[in-house]
Amino acid sequence: xNVSLTPELERRIEERVASGLYGSASEVMREALRxxxxxxxxxxxxxxxxxxxxxxxxxxxxxxEGIAPDEARRLSKERIAAxxxxxxxxxxx
Length: 93
Fold this sequence. Notes:
Blueprint: H1 7-18, H2 25-62, H3 69-86
């Protein structure tokens, strides 16, 4: 497999090898790709979770289980205040 890199990327890879952290450019690229795929997988799971939560919320609204915006705002403020108090932070209104 051949990969074309910009001069900037080549320079940065060469710096990592020169630092002694990696034995070769291939090692740098393997590590970079492992990290990329780990992040990409995590983002994919987060997006799936978000889509599932949105679907659940739409289902609740369709069933008439939604709450008025003012009530949602009040509940959110209460939850935030409770978290701050649990962490020992100042309570805000």
